[in-house]
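S.,

As promised, the uridine-5'-diphosphate run. Input:
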Amino acid sequence: MSVNDPKQGSSSTAVMNGPSATSQVTKFAQPERRRNARISQTPPPPSPPPRLEDYATIIGRPELDEIYFLAKPLAGKTVTMVNSTAVGGGVAELLNRMVPMLNELKIGTHWDVITGGNDFFEVTKAFHNALHGGHYEFTNQAREVYLATNEQNRKRMRFDDDIIVIHDPQPAGLVASKPDHKAKWIWRCHIDLSNPHPDVWGFLRPIVDQYDAAIFSSPSFARQLSIPQYLFYPCIDPLSEKNKELEPGYIQKVCDDFGIDRSRPVVTQISRFDRLKDPVGVIKAYKLARNYVDCQLVLAGGGATDDPEGAAVLHEVMEAAGDDPDIIILNLPPWSALEINALQRASTVIVQKSLKEGFGLTVTEALWKGKPTIGGDVGGIPTQIIHKLTGVLVHSVEGCAYQIRYLLTHPEFAAELGKNGHEHVKENLLMSANLRRWVLLFRILLGLT
Ligand code: UDP
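Predicted complex:
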């Protein structure tokens, strides 16, 4: 490992702003060694959905053939997926990829989106927060708005397919149509129900109990229910801009644009500027580690413009970084998937030092790229990081500092972790693994085992 003069280059911490950066951010000086990052001012057009065949080179021909084989008895069966938004958010993104792939397997799948007024979406947003443990005054009016909108949608929609999959609480009430049709009904819950508001869950639970099965994203998110429950981990798409292979020249260009010196180790955390992601803790850990080992720290995130707390946290991060020229803080626009991919691939070690976490897709992304990854021992991170096998788990700033130092000075061990992490994601956390689970669940519910 090269140990260069850490003070080379410039005189203050770097901040690169996306086009939407706030004035709070821009007041920080931009050092000379950082070039102008040329991130597009507008979102790029959406990339075409991948074809199932494209996965053969990633997961291997036998694994892909296994999915085709498992899906055979389902040929000609039909599925409806229902959620509450066609764009934005992880569920829409997932359905955008999953629906064409199920159709390729000859499982005729269509995607329907419920409609509702502002009052409905205000109620369901409040439900969402309350189901995550927030305070909420559950009123009769909220109950009626929820049920009336579900009823209107229920009357408009058809449920003559073999399987109906309802995503999240917003359209859960459509299950009232179940007695009139032959379909099997699945409720796919993408949210953390480990600590739900008792009144909201007390209202939803009898609705959920009418389904044939429920799916949760983590064992700790599941609830006591009278129906079978299944575990489907969230997944990433290895063919998306965020995760696909990149040309080395492009990775270098992104690093040059952001002033990252690739001849020296790069430690990176990609996260919204949110206190629960502990970016200030990462800076403290980096500073401790720097007493022993040379490295640069990249903190890349976004969301500071429309989120007042995000801007405040970014400010705290800038203060904590002080005038260290080797801390590079990047405030990226939401359409920076390629740049994030390049930053992850250019990193020597990736950190996700969260204090609380849902699943932690940034960890999945890091492991997929074969990077030695340090994660806080919270939420879904320990599902992904098996300590000292697929990465390392930490519980404190000091622990994080120790692991940064250890991984940077033990490259063979670090490479082994990265290799195992990649395999773990390949096996369990790719879209193809998710597709396989859907196929198996459909077969179980339709008695095609
Ligand atoms: N991400 C991004 N831009 C950012 C920060 C994060 O695109 O500035 C992406 C990141 O690559 C990941 C997702 O947002 O795909 C964050 O998911 P995660 O589950 O890690 O955390 P959340 O933000 O949902 O709490």
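Confidence is low (pLDDT under 50) at residues 1-12, 18-36. The pocket of uridine-5'-diphosphate is lined by residues 242, 270-272, 301-302, 332, 340, 358-362, 365 (CB under 6 Å).

- D.
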